[in-house]
Write a structure and sequence with these properties.
Length: 380
Amino acid sequence: MKILLSILALTLPLTAQTKITPYLSIKLEMKRAIERGNTYLKNQQNKEGYWRDTKYPAYTALALTAAMRSPSYEKSAYIDQAYQWLVKQQKDDGGIYGKGLGTYNTATSIVALVATGDKTYNPVILKARRFLINQQTDWDTKGEADNKYDGGIGYGGSYNHSDMSNTYLSIEALRLSRHIAQDDASGKQPELDWEAAIQFISRTQNLKETNDQPGISNDGSMNYFPGDSKAGHDVRPDGTKVLRGYGSMSYAGLLSMIYAELNEKDIRVTAVKKWLAEHYTVQENPGLATKENPALGQQGLYYYYHVMAKGLAAANIDKLTLKDGKQVDWRNDLANKILTNQREDGSWINKNSRWWESDPVLVTAYGVLTLEQIYHSIPE
């Protein structure tokens, strides 16, 4: 197909050639892959309307968002049934969850509900927003960021700390649904303490100028939460240990900064973008691999792809300038990588099972959503 389109372009007059964008071929490939992925997901739906596990509505929410954002979307009974099931999972406290992981499931569900544009879901969304806002941490002295976890959001329940992943997912859900909360018909609605959220994000970043926590480097990358990185730590020549940031959380941090409306010239934004450019890759989740175990770089790979596409698109980056000055087309690189990894049945899977990525339903949703993000963000 690519060769055919290239030959066709050479035979057309200049005015016609200009109408063929550099992405025309890969857009067609992505559209087909999205259709195949969504067909796979449709075939995995349970007869009651949900996907995978009733305890975790996030599975259903991710599959629904993938269906709704497809360039080939058509209203379907299976989608309607799934939404009917999803809204029934809302609890009295506003959360949309089955058993545990309330923040993750609720945030993901809000995004799926917003994707419909259906105002009949607004009361459900507003109630879920209040639940998320109430999950924002404020330990010790109320109203003061005197605890390193303050301002962030965690899984909830028995998890007693905030983390970058749940904070980013919650902030994203709140920003995507903000127009509903600001609608006059919704009445006065609570709002997240954005200043506190920014403080938490800052304390999760390896940047000494804006992070008052010990044990950090100064490279601009992001950790999982203050004092902890799933990538472990590096040992300096003097024997001191510093946290090692990694790709997926660094993109989550970038997205959170953008949603929190930090200026693009803010040192926190420029520092994380610099680290991401220096560690750009679609082969692994950078920062997780070690010399002793390179396979660790495959952990959370499709989560990384998804948040990477969202982060670079939100930052309005078309070409990423690498450390050596070379510019790369991240959309083309990432799309081709995901297209190559799609299996014959339309699904995707990560051979590394950490963070649930051995589950083809979850990983296929990530794969489809990533392609959709790329597809819809391509410059005209």
